[in-house]
Task: structure prediction
Amino acid sequence: MAIAKAERLMNLALCLLGARRPLSKRELRDSIEAYVEAARPQTGGAGSDDSFNRMFERDKDDLRELGLVIETVENLDGEVGYLARRDSNRLPPITLDAEEAAALGLAAKVWQQARLAGAASGALQKLRAAGLPEDVDPYEAHGALEPRIPVHETAFEPLMLACRDRRPVVFEYRKASAARPEPRHVEPWALECWRGHWYLAGFDRDRGAERVFRLSRITGRVRSRGTGFTAPVPDVVTVRETVASWAGEITDRSALIRLRSGSGYPLRAKAISVRELGDGWDELEIPYGHGLDAWLVEFGPDVVVLEPAELRADVVDRLRAVAKG
Result:
């Protein structure tokens, strides 16, 4: 349905832009296949001029909303015609300096997926045709930089499209502390890459609150569920800040743990202090932020939380949940 409408709008725009004189509704109706079908008599012999008129008025309003300047002109016979003059719908020349061109080139090199790489390459070709100086090579201005944003998760593409089209989705999601995945009904807002991993921010309908999901923990297929969002979309979606906070990157206190010698190197890298206890154990003071309990659980029997008491209780609860399956 969306593709058919987009094709119809494109055909109408091309007719209006290519015409040397204003075209009447009748001429447009006879020139565009979708309008011919809409105007064709339905079963029972009733005419369909009303259907065509409604479709045409909606399409005309949609094109104007997209920025196409459509003039309404009345000829000597009093018949109304429509015209989109090229000089009224021509964009100004695009001017890019070397730094701006280099930034676009780097952006085009970021994506490694075939579909996205083709779109990025096509965009650069259009910029070149629109006036990007021939002596500026956006790919070579900063050739030493080789950015990469890997996308291995199969959920990325359907979620990217769902964010663009504002379509709610449902998927199976396995939390770090859970033994099996659970269904999530989400209104997707934005995708962002943070430290090599992709995250989705959106409104979790089941929990009635904003949530952030790591794509690598989505199992199975992402499916669309209905249309329209029930919660407002924030003007700014702070995915990185939220993930950093949940990962314990934003902290205002510390925790004391026992860590088995020769293990837990990521914890040792973040440690504020380390003290040898003997008998194969060390004592570490580490930053304590949201999500630390889930991270400590991943180290299993190699970690024992000493304080604070609430962190110890959270870790014990998570371990019991995993043990129960």
Observations:
- The first strand starts at residue 23 and ends at 24.
